[in-house]
């Protein structure tokens, strides 16, 4: 009697089968559901003051990029 081999199914694989959401929709859902903000300091929707504010918060929380000049 031969027993069929069971393949391990990674839980993350379920996400691949679902319709893919665009990154902006994922960010929007994260903000609305969990109050998590994902934003780039290069986002064109922000003005100079807002981009600088985001950059400073990021550097304060996570530090500056090593070897960055300018």
Q: Overview of this structure, please?
A:
- The protein is mainly alpha-helical.
- It has a domain of 44 residues.
- The chain contains three helices and no strands.
- The N and C termini lie far apart (70 Å).
- 0% of the residues are buried.
Ends: how far apart? 70 Å
Radius of gyration: 20 Å
* Range of strand content: under 5%
Number of strands: 0
Largest sheet: none
Q: How would you sum up the global shape?
A: elongated
Instruction: Return the string of H and E elements.
Output: HHH
Structural class: mainly alpha
Number of DSSP helical runs:
3
Poorly predicted tracts of residues: none
Helix content: 40-55%
Short description:
With 70 residues, the protein is an all-alpha fold. Helices cover 46% and strands 0% of the residues. It has a domain of 44 residues.
């Amino acid at each position: 009697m031969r027993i069929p081999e069971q393949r391990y199914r990674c839980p993350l694989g379920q996400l691949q089968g679902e319709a893919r959401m665009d990154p902006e929709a994922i960010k929007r859902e994260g903000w609305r559901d969990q109050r998590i903000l994902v934003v780039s300091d290069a986002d064109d929707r922000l003005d100079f003051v807002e981009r600088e504010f985001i950059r400073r918060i990021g550097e304060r929380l996570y530090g500056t990029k090593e070897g960055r000049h300018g």
